[in-house]
UniProtKB/TrEMBL annotation:
Acidic residues bias locations: 410-425
Region of interest (Disordered), ranges: 400-425
Keyword DNA damage: yes
One function term, GO molecular function aspect: DNA clamp loader activity
Organism: Cuscuta campestris
Subcellular location, record wording: Nucleus; Plastid
GO cellular component, as recorded: nucleus; plastid
Record's protein name: Cell cycle checkpoint protein RAD17
Protein origin, superkingdom: Eukaryota
Gene3D superfamilies given in the database record: 1.10.8.60
Length: 425
């Protein structure tokens, strides 16, 4: 059952029955209000019409007070159908009889006033710069701001003495207009969690949302050829998104390689070639280091970071003719299944040679060239000898058949042309 079907079933039950009070105890329930803060994701006109019809019936015949929450967050990043969908849905609900209540967003000044009032009521002393930094770090979330203020009041000296590399930093008021504001910051060990999931980061790279045609990026020191120019991105730098996702470079590259073709236009063969070349470069950077060369952990981490950046920027740059916006399901890389099967086959070959399970991992990693020898020479010969000993080529004279010009029996025998036939492995 899809999320839309679950929501339709929930709305149908709520619309028909409401809240059924208990008749056994005879106690009356307290006044309640139904709050719907999350609607199912719809893609296309068919699912949108189903959701609109469901909400319209809910508004017209619901038995209890109901509130639906809509937000304008991210509205500027939406285009096409996804941008029109909330506005049209709100209009249809208003026509059905719903009342619209608009809340203004919480500003930094209102947040500062609320925090200063809390400080006065709790009789704690917090500097104005710290209050402003907490208000900005909360990003409009009053609950997060109050929690951050509580942590700050526990031990402000220890919080401000931590290195800024592991803290959330906000420029101070005096350095706001300074060119060197990045060197004069108030370090904070709190703030909104800005981490992204792996699939959220992949969606930013694959959907490749950019500014409109009339928008131009900042001019550089030199003019680029037209085929190398791109419109500005509607997101942070790819390296910032990668750092927020905390994903491994190999996983990100494999997911991009598996799914990027779904987001390219069917006729954009040149774009596919450019993207493939960048992904090939990233795959080369992610290759295991040569055992003859000494490599440190720091250099390997840097190499992986560069590979992830090359893969992400290559997908963004190469996708110059994206496919029409629609719902795409992110697939698991098929390469992982191939690598898993390859590993199982290698382990099976070593088990057939008589190694114990604890020694398999060591031999598989240290004797990589031996795998091709075992697969192409040893296993076919063993299979060939096994067929001969089992009587596949005869019942009584199997021991007389020659192997590499030598007879398996004691009696000598002339080698005929028929004996030169080799089994097709």
């Amino acid at each position: 059952m899809s999320k839309l079907e679950e929501f339709e079933s929930f709305a149908e039950r709520t619309r028909k029955y409401g809240l059924i009070s208990s008749t056994v105890t005879g106690q009356s329930l307290a006044p309640v209000i139904l709050l719907i803060d999350d609607l199912p994701v719809v893609n296309g006109n068919a699912t949108y019409e189903r959701l609109k019809r469901c909400l319209t019936l809910l508004v017209q015949s619901v038995r209890i007070p109901t509130a639906l929450l809509f937000t304008d967050h991210g509205k500027a990043d939406s285009t096409g159908f996804n941008m029109r969908y909330p506005e049209e849905l709100l209009q249809s609900l208003e026509y059905a009889g719903a009342c619209k209540v608009t809340f203004n967003p919480i500003t930094t000044n209102s947040m500062k006033k609320a925090l200063e009032k809390i400080c006065r009521m709790e009789q704690v002393k917090v500097s104005a710069d710290s209050v402003e930094a907490i208000a900005k770090a909360s990003g409009g979330d009053i609950r997060n701001a109050i929690t951050s203020l509580q942590y700050f009041c526990l031990n402000p000296h220890s919080l401000l003495s931590q290195p800024s590399s592991s803290c959330y930093s906000i420029p101070s008021k005096e350095s706001r207009d300074d060119a060197n504001a990045s060197n004069n910051r108030i370090p904070l060990t709190f703030g909104r969690d800005e981490t992204l999931s792996l699939f959220h980061a992949l969606g930013k790279f694959l959907h490749n949302k950019r500014e409109s045609e009339g928008t131009t990026s900042d001019g550089g020191l030199f003019a680029l050829n037209e085929k190398f120019t791109r419109l500005p991105l509607k997101m942070e730098a790819p390296e910032v998104v990668l750092s927020q996702a905390h994903g491994q470079a190999r996983h990100i590259t494999d997911f991009l390689h598996e799914n990027v073709l779904d987001f390219l236009s069917e006729v954009a063969t040149d774009d596919a070639w450019v993207v493939s070349s960048y992904l090939s470069d990233a795959d080369f950077l992610l290759a295991p280091p040569n055992t003859m060369l000494a490599s440190s952990l720091r250099s390997e981490n840097l190499q992986h970071s560069v590979a992830a950046s090359v893969a992400a920027r290559g997908v963004l740059f190469g996708n110059n003719h994206p496919s029409p916006s629609r719902w795409h399901a992110i697939r698991r890389p098929k390469l992982w299944q191939v690598e898993q099967s390859l590993w199982q086959n290698k382990c099976q070959m070593w088990r057939e040679r008589g190694y114990y399970y604890s020694d398999i991992d060591k031999h598989v990693k240290q004797c990589m060239p031996m795998h091709s020898v075992i697969a192409t020479e040893l296993k076919p010969v063993l299979k060939w000898l096994g067929h001969r000993l089992c009587g596949d080529f005869g019942t009584n004279d199997t021991h007389k058949k020659p192997v590499n010009g030598m007879s398996l029996g004691d009696e000598s025998e002339d080698i005929s042309d028929d004996d030169d036939d080799i089994e097709d492995w």
